């Protein structure tokens, strides 16, 4: 038994360690965010409400059915319900029945409400999908930020390792009297600065991971980490399309555009519903009722009074009524006219919002298009600068090793390499993210594999 318990505990511990060592890929982060984001859960509940509203609208076409019953007991003077004569005896009465009503015509408002409910369900889906689009972009940006900070940290550590070697070599040169002690102090200052860079880099990685974890609704920040991968700039032919072509395609599938278009359609349905209040309303009704009273007196064949039993009275006194009722609106304090005016204003506002959404989309696409071009050039320029800085550093190192360059100038050459490497990392991930944004506007899924 103890052996089995030990094995179980070992398996559990291995599972915990495995979970803590999990490295999240971008796709896993996006999928997890879709399944666990609180805003998405809230919007999904709104979508369920829209489905219920659709069921309500469908129910307005159906007749209602209500049953009723009552019991009362009268002592003293009262009217006998069976013969409408006064009586002073105690009477126990039971009434029962059911009624049904159906709207035959209400200015087509029930039809428009049903169509509106269907549109609202579609609009809720577009709004939910638009939120998911935004979360995908936010997760991708946060993920790339972690990657960028991790890669920068690797560079800082590699630079510090090189400086440590230079520091040891300089100590030997100082000890042998080849270079002055001031050069050693300069190298030590450079090493101290790089140590600070490493500390800042570690903090940047931690903060960026926390930001990503918060987007995923994960609170175990200490054990959260992403996959240790290095990503090169992915190949893309998105710039083969003009910004206008990308915009025209985006109009056909973007959820924010579809949502705004749905709001226009909803406002137009609201206007039709408001106008329907000007028309007459025709309703049909059907009622069935019966009753029982213990003071009922009827005459038999011999004209002898008798009181029918409970079941017989229910059949004797039952009856039905049916008919239709027409209501014609004449004046209601301007409320209907004002509702129509408000609905017209809402239609105009929703159309303006649609045009504003299109304008924002066009602006964002043009900006993303320009950003991709600019960051592509910036990345290429940063690579060329880094290559030149490295060559200059190698030349400076050769001069420093033979005593032809002082430590200050050598540290400046190394600092320029450090800055160039940091700029390459920054421009690379800026370029990747802008590229993915532009591809996203073109309908391509977010992926950096």
TrEMBL record:
The keyword Cell membrane does not apply. The keyword Transport applies. Residues 1-19 form the signal peptide. Pfam families: OEP (PF02321). GO terms for molecular function: efflux transmembrane transporter activity; porin activity. GO terms for cellular component: cell outer membrane; efflux pump complex. The lineage of its organism: Bacteria, Pseudomonadati, Bacteroidota, Flavobacteriia, Flavobacteriales. Transmembrane segments: none annotated. Keywords: Cell outer membrane, Membrane, Signal, Transmembrane, Transmembrane beta strand, Transport. Its main location: membrane. This is TolC family protein.
